[in-house]
TrEMBL record:
Family: Belongs to the uracil-DNA glycosylase (UDG) superfamily. Type 5 (UDGb) family.
Gene3D superfamilies: Uracil-DNA glycosylase-like domain
Keyword entries, A-Z: 4Fe-4S, DNA damage, DNA repair, Hydrolase, Iron, Iron-sulfur, Metal-binding
Name under which the protein is recorded: Type-5 uracil-DNA glycosylase
InterPro entries on file: UDG_Type-4/5, UdgB-like, Uracil-DNA_glycosylase-like, Uracil-DNA_glycosylase-like_sf
Pfam family, one: UDG
Record flagged with keyword Translocase: no
Superkingdom of the organism of origin: Bacteria
Signal peptide limits: none
Uracil-DNA glycosylase-like domain boundaries: 60-232
Length: 245
């Protein structure tokens, strides 16, 4: 794969709304450890991607501004989103997620290779509570909390159309619930517990829990393609999105 263009979010940026938020996220340098790690990874690279120009910056959300369904992950992968500049693109977790979205009828193609591969999401946006690739895929609680305002702003911008959210994994769940509260949704106390298949109603917003699409889960069978498709299909129907049979 040849070197990617410098910015996968090219074109004219609006002065407000999600495109503007995405630009601001991509310029963030708030967490020194994450800045150092993402940039070092982009310099050193993985041998398989030696001819790539890594993105090496925070990775904004991906999907339409009028999404009815939001998928919340954990953070970009060092040689996935940190390389390609697009959420869940270029790594095995993304392979699993986008194939399932395609199977359910929510994506234009089953693969996500680079930011200009033609992939479109139908009524779905994908984001994360931490926008920089963290060492060992483990952001610190401080880094999670520092990044939270970006998710809060994204939720506020999506609120007019948003009807359902799928949160992948316990980390994302713990990070997302405070963001929902700050964005204006009423989150009960004690907060809803994470579980695969969990389903809660927050002020008209359907919240779903799903095991993360990490290799640890998918390789061991803890999360199967059928399990993932079931959650996505149920969430899409809650959001009143058309799905494949």
């Amino acid at each position: 794969m040849p070197a990617t263009p410098a910015c996968p979010y090219g074109g004219v940026m609006d002065s407000s709304g999600l495109p503007h938020l995405d630009r601001r996220i991509a310029d963030c340098r708030a967490c020194p450890r994450l800045v150092s790690w993402r940039e070092e990874t982009a310099r050193v690279k993985r041998a398989a991607f030696a001819d790539w120009t890594y993105w090496g910056r925070p990775v904004p959300g991906f999907g339409p501004a009028d999404a009815r369904l939001l998928i919340v992950g954990l953070a970009p992968a060092a040689h996935g989103g940190n390389r390609t500049g697009r959420m869940f693109t270029g790594d095995r977790s993304g392979d699993v997620l986008y194939e399932a979205l395609y199977d359910v009828g929510l994506a234009s193609q089953p693969t996500a290779v680079h930011a200009h591969d033609g992939l479109e999401l139908y009524g779905v946006r994908v984001t994360a509570p931490v926008h920089c690739a963290p060492p060992a895929n483990k952001p610190t609680p401080e880094e999670r909390d520092t990044c939270r305002p970006w998710l809060v702003q994204e939720l506020r911008l999506l609120r007019p159309t948003l009807r359902a959210v799928v949160v992948l994994g316990g980390f994302g769940w713990q990070a997302a619930l405070p963001a929902f509260a700050e964005a204006g949704w009423s989150v009960p106390r004690p907060r809803p517990a994470f579980a695969h298949g969990a389903r809660y109603l927050l002020d008209g917003l359907e919240l779903f829990g799903c095991f993360h699409v990490s290799q640890r889960n998918t390789f061991t069978g803890r999360l199967t393609p059928a399990m993932l498709r079931d959650v996505l299909r149920t969430a899409a129907r809650a959001a009143e999105l058309p799905t494949a049979s």
